[in-house]
Protein: SH2 domain-containing protein
Organism: Caenorhabditis briggsae
Amino acid sequence: MKKTSPSDFYANSSLANNPASSWGYKPDNPINSSGDTFAVRFMGLVPIPRTIRNRNIEERDHIVRLCINTVVNCHASNEFRQLLAQEELGPYISVNKLETFLNVANFMTSFFHIDDGRSRLLGRYMNNQISHYKASEIDNRHYIGLVMKSPNGKRECNVIMIDAVDELLRKLQSVDALNHSPIATLGARLKSTQDYDFKLEMLACFHGVLEHSAACSRLRNSGDFLVRSSPNQPGVFVATYKIGPNQFEKAIFPENNINIFKQFQVRNCVLKRPIVRPDF
């Protein structure tokens, strides 16, 4: 994947050079119309099937920290698995450290990535769709988990790595009290932005080119799964998963895009625990 520095972003991106037309904000808004942009790294996400708004602050903080630890360490703790079984959290998705830019404007938070000279949208959320966020430090690195509700109604905790954590938290807090524009109004102005497709190769549980039998040997418990590339059909991606003692199945992905993982429903889902590849 092409690496892009913050200076390259500001030099080449129409989002930065022409924010009024790109973002749809009036220049006389109390906060700079283009918002503040941070160079961050997107680490992954955890689907959250149920709202956490009815929980107290301590419980919300704990859930977000748990999501951050799970995504960053690529490991589901016993507590995470218990919440998974209770349908409180969805299967986690860890990706390679994807160099990303996070823009926080007065009515919207957006993740986007520069690829082949084009701005690709990773995710866009109205700020009133952010129900909670929390910072956490792991091995002297700073992470933020943002619990958001996507336009299709699904909640997820997006985990990012960032250096200017205090500055970002202040920016998020500064927009909390503002009145928000109707979603439809902004959405109509932003339809031209192209969504970025997360590729399956980015997943921590992508094991490269692998035979089905070799994939099965890496799965220990029912619900374990991994993603692999078929050695017999170049370009075809397969999920291999375990359903019982010495019982394995496989399924071909219809396209090279991890958005299918965001559609997971924990109930009756056979893909419970992604097995991280050894070199991740």
